[in-house]
Amino acid sequence: MIVRVLLFASYADALGASELSLDLPAGARVLDVLTHVKALASGKRLPERPMVAVNQRYARDDQAVTAADEVAIIPPVAGG
Amino acid sequence: MRTAIVDRAIDGCALLEEVARHHNGATVLFVGTVREVNDGAAVSGLDYSAYTGMAEKELAAIVAEAADRCHTPDIVVEHRIGALALGEASVAIAVAHPHRGEAYEASRYIIEELKKRLPVWKREHYVDGRSEWVQNAEAEMGNRKLEIGASEA
To answer: Which of A45, A66, B122, B141 has its CA 20 to 30 A from that of A76?
Structure first.
């Protein structure tokens, strides 16, 4: 399945893209998304365990993802 | 209650009017502004960006929590994104309550949670021409807390 992954701010700069399309096996979880992104040449610049949101809510590593989900890797925030 | 991510100047006085009710005896307005020095570097301006859809949801959730904890619906919060100059407001929080204690408490809760959780990012531009992404000191701690909270859910 193809999963859309959004990138922002310093992570978009690090990977040179604001969006990725990953081909993941059915049943993939958040941790699998991170493993795939970090396997990319530019993905090694991400920290060990970045925060992830699924459908605009913070998600834990074992949350399942589907092709219909909006997945985002969230850099350390700086609001306020 | 009203929350918004905006790309225009924030008018704190308008927020004060929006939360005014005759049963409220205390109104607190917090305004966060762009500071000229951060970590010893002279700042010339900055750019805020956001994961807008999620930021809107998260900001609404934080304000709903504050309203619940402090027993007042009279809260309005705006966070600005885009290019901001020194002294401009990046965030404003207006809270009104019959009594001051709860008004201060809700205001403080909202700014502290927002600094940990709101998916908004800041790129600072410095007088010497450099620029870099900066993060809140609260962000890492907030992330860990969020992860712990999520794994307990």
So the answer is: A66
